Amino acid sequence: MEIAGVELDNLELENIGSWPRRVRYGVIGIVLIALFVGAYYLNFVDQYAIIEKLQTEKVTLKMQFEKTQNEIANLEIYKIQVKKLQAELAKLSLQLPSNSEEAAFLEEISQLAALQGLEFRSIKPYPQQYKGFYIEQPVELIMRGDYHGLGNFVNDVSKKSRVITLHDLSIKTMEDKRKKEWSIHDLEITMMAKIYWVPK
């Protein structure tokens, strides 16, 4: 095979120095190009991957920095909000007694109901539930009375200084057996009352 007037079959690797100058420079050029391409792929491709990774990390760190900077800028506002929340918590904690006072609560509820013409059919305490820094005591109340008595009773409970919440209200009309008819003045009222206290 002949290229540019040089017979390639006559070239021997042991005598590279005697090869024609054009062929030697051509081989050296090819070797240099191959080395450059190899070095590029071995070195620069890895470098680009590292650069892309670092750029992604830079964006993430910039976002974290901006978030932290924003939090620092609003630190005084957060401190004021925390103080307000602590004051509110202290105020609410004062409304929570240091023990259940369940007997006193039930007596108080009974008196409020009686004042509004409601008659207790059943009072059923459920197991206490620990809720972190306070305890919740659910009590199921079943009463008999009318709408006005119920409304006044709920209003009276809402005015109490201690925290009492009412849940799951259910109202059924009772049959007046004397008149053999339904009466809106004779209702069976079921609700769940919850009292709260802070354990000692």
Structure description:
The strands form two sheets. Strands 3, 4, 5, 6 and 7 form a five-stranded antiparallel β-sheet that branches. α3 packs across α4 (147-158). The protein folds into two domains: 1-73, no CATH class; 102-197, 2-Layer Sandwich (Alpha-Beta Plaits). Helices cover 50% and strands 27% of the residues. By secondary structure, it is an alpha+beta fold. The protein has helices spanning 21-73, 75-94, 102-115, 147-158, and strands spanning 2-3, 6-7, 119-125, 129-130, 135-145, 164-176, 181-197. It is rod-shaped and about 125 Å long. The mean pLDDT is 77. The protein is built from four helices and seven strands, in the order ββαααβββαββ.
**What portion of residues belong to β-strands?**
25-35%
Question: How many structural units, i.e. domains?
Answer: 2
What would CATH call the homologous superfamily of the largest domain?
Answer: Ribosomal protein S6/Translation elongation factor EF1B
What integer is the average pLDDT?
Answer: 77
Approximate shape: rod-shaped
If you consult CATH, what is the topology of the largest domain?
Answer: Alpha-Beta Plaits
Main beta-sheet annotation:
5 strands, antiparallel
Please give the share of residues in helix: 40-55%
- CA(first)-CA(last) distance: 103 Å
Spans where pLDDT lies below 50 across 5 or more residues: none
The CATH class assignment of the largest domain is Alpha Beta
**Class derived from helix and strand content:** alpha+beta
> Any idea what the radius of gyration is?
44 Å
Query: What's the CATH architecture name of the largest domain?
Result: 2-Layer Sandwich
